[in-house]
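re: ur question from yesterday

yeah so i grabbed the chain u mentioned. its 134 aa long if i counted rite. heres the sequnce exactly as i have it in my notes:
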Amino acid sequence: MREVVYFSTQSGNTRRFVEKLDVSAQAIPRSRNDAPLHVERPYILILPTYGDGDPRTAVPGPVIRFLNDPHNRALIEGVVAGGNTNFGAAFGLAGRVVAHKCQVPLLHRFELMGTPEDVAKVHDCLATEMTDAG
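ran it thru and got these structure tokens back, copy pasting raw so excuse formatting
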């Protein structure tokens, strides 16, 4: 099964979603004062979407710092994004932004803490070989 790296805000919605997956996962630190995370194996990134629908502010800063490390960026294989459907077209926008910039697939979007169906879908993604990013 593929590795999981995730970022969760203080609300904890993304963390709770990852916990439902019942897989080994590494958290991206929230604070610049914490030691940075350096991955060693290919992974799927799970992250929440910030803000107001602006692609420039949708990706949390700690995720940007994590992906600015060329080694970490080279090992990303796909993205799963959390969000809130109240944001309409901006639902899961952070996932679309990261997938585009890193040239990997956006595998799934889930609302808030996700449903059992979301968990099953992401489990399938973690167990399936990635194809060429598009």
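noticed a couple things. The helical segments are 13-21, 61-67, 70-74, 93-102, 116-127. also The CA atoms of residues 13 and 52 lie 18 Å apart.
anyway ttyl
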